[in-house]
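Title: Prediction job returns without error message
Component: structure pipeline
Severity: low
Priority: P3
Assignee: unassigned

Description:
Job completed but the reporter wants confirmation the result is attached to the right record. Sequence as submitted:
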Amino acid sequence: IQSDNRLSYDKLSQKFPGLANKPIEQMREELKSQANALANNEETAKKDIIRVGTAILGAGSIALYATQSAWLSSHAELAMIAIFLLGYIGIIFEEVFEFNKAAVALLMSTGLWVTYADFYGESTGIASANVLEQLKEQLAEVSDICFFLLAASAIVEVVDAHQGFKVVTNLITTKSKKGLFWVIGFLTFFLSAILNNLTVTIVMVSLLRKLVPNDDDRRLFGAMVVVAANAGGVWTPIGDVTTTMLWINNNLSTIPTVTELFLPSLVCLVASLFFLVNNIEEDSSLAESTLPPPSPLAPRGQVVFWTGIASLLAVPVFAELTGLPPYLAMLTGLGAIWTMTDIIHMDDEEEEMKVPAALSKLDTSGILFFLGILMSIGVLDKSGLLKELAQFLNDNLPNQDIIATVIGIASALIDNVPLVAATMGMYDLTDYGTDDKLWQLIALCAGTGGSILVIGSASGVALMGLEKVDFLWYAKNVSVGAAVGYFAGIAAYLAQNAILSGALLGGSV
């Protein structure tokens, strides 16, 4: 354009005085101004600091390991603790740093294993045969849990795709808000005992959007669902991932878990509901519910629903009868429902109702997060660091009941999966056998303690995303009620344990 004299800046500026300052230069100045304004934004500054900090930390770590630094060899234990703490900070403040916690967990796992294999103790700079064997053992243990979760989640997705949960929603007919509060609470409690509590939370919150039109009421109902789901997941091996971890690791067995943790879990729920229901004000808002009238579930949906439920309930029975790992039973159930849905939809062109579609919807990053966390905890166990922590707690806390209670309170701030995994490494099964009081109390405390703060459990985090519940609102309106239930559940367990062990009877003689 500038080669044509008719369109030169000089000619155009004579005709259009507004172009005298040259438009391209003006645009450049405007872009600079916009860039400066953006740079002054607090959010942009935070991201820049995170980017620079991450780059420096990454480059420094690579240089430290690539040069086989002598410091690592002499301070390997300190380096492992630092890697774990940094990884934990990244996981806890996932929303602040905007790093996916699965990525952080995987990097943490790799860093810990490299440090342990190449620099810890008598290491010579390359992994020994003993370390490689330990790595295989740990991966085998972790794979049990990951495959179990994968299969269980897929079964639930298939049931949901066939509208199987209409069996549940058809039971809800009350128009009283306080009555509905109790109904949803108990329904969630028992559903989460046979399904995983995260899935139940998602299903129930989705249902509440149709049942409870008022936003403030719905947030309180959603918070109650989190409390009920976490309490209900405690008393069966398949309800909560932490109980599942303890069960798969043989810390807990099926029948004692159900019989001895049911009452404390129920007390936890009822105490919290009694406290929280006072925040509900009765009105006619439920008349605006958009839930359709109860309707029968299609025959195919009924078959899939009951097959899915049977597959989940058969897992502990299969494990008890065969002695084989629970994940194999869950994979068997997935195979059965997969084959059945293929037969049912043999002539259908759409694939949405089949298992491959369900698998594509699974939270793969969540499973990888479990992998990274459990592999990280495993290497801390192999190195002996967790045993040292267990000894510290034993030396400084009066008894195991208080230790378990502290772990439960910590789970309100920290993800209960790594907490329970760490505890499993801290205390040996030879000292505290299967179904020991310590393991049962840890399952109860870690499961219900996560309800005290909204960030303390996967269910709470799901509620944050689904209903935009923030940390401060939950702390103000729900935390006290959840804490009341937490301590009531612990008291119920200790009283029940004392009665069953004969301590109270013996003391009265």
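Comment from assignee: result matches the submitted record. The chain has a mean pLDDT of 80.
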